[in-house]
Amino acid sequence: MDADKQMCGLGQSSEFVELAVEVFGLLADATRVRIILALRENDELSVNHLADIVAKSPAAVSQHLAKLRMARIVSTRQDGQRVFYRLTNEHASQLVSDAIFQAEHAVADDRLPHHHAERA
């Protein structure tokens, strides 16, 4: 089992740990998370359409998309002068989904009453 983890990069000494940290850092931005969620719900979107969805200026969205593109999280397709963005694969979308599920569970756990053991 440990050999399998090492082969696919899941071991703690993996060369991919630092790269994974960079991906988490890149996704540690609400606008980028919203962009990924919007692209997950649509096959592809233009900068202007994404800007409308995430309520940011096209210039700001374009800067975020450039970072996501450099990290190969999004890819592009050009149609005339318009550029359309799409998720390169499902991995970033899954990371965002997992983070949101974790946040939901954390909030739900905080809302549950805490039961303390009664002292005898």
Name its key features:
single chain, 120 residues, mainly alpha, Arc Repressor Mutant, subunit A, 6 helices, 3 strands, 58% helix, 12% strand
Write the layout of secondary structure elements.
Layout: H1 2-7, H2 17-26, H3 30-41, E1 45-46, H4 47-54, H5 58-70, E2 74-79, E3 82-87, H6 91-111
Antiparallel strand pairs: 1-3, 2-3
Helix pairs in contact: 3-6, 4-5
Please provide a written account of the structure.
This protein has 120 residues and is mainly α. The protein has a single domain, classed as Arc Repressor Mutant, subunit A, CATH 1.10.10. Helices cover 58% and strands 12% of the residues. The protein is built from 6 helices and 3 strands; from the N terminus they run H-H-H-E-H-H-E-E-H. A 3-stranded antiparallel sheet has the order 1-3-2. Helix 3 crosses helix 6 and helix 4 crosses helix 5. The longest helix has 21 residues.
Give the gist of this structure:
The chain is mostly helical. It is 58% helix and 12% strand.
- From the N-terminal CA to the C-terminal CA, the straight-line distance is 46 Å
Q: How many beta-strand runs?
A: 3
Mean pLDDT across the residues is 87
Instruction: Write out the CATH superfamily name.
Output: Winged helix-like DNA-binding domain superfamily/Winged helix DNA-binding domain
Structural category is: mainly alpha
Q: Given this structure, which CATH class is correct?
A: Mainly Alpha
Instruction: Give the count of structural domains.
Output: 1
Question: Can you tell me the CATH architecture?
Answer: Orthogonal Bundle
Sketch the topology as an H/E string, one letter per element.
Answer: HHHEHHEEH
- What's the CATH topology name? Arc Repressor Mutant, subunit A
Question: What characterizes the major β-sheet?
Answer: 3 strands, antiparallel
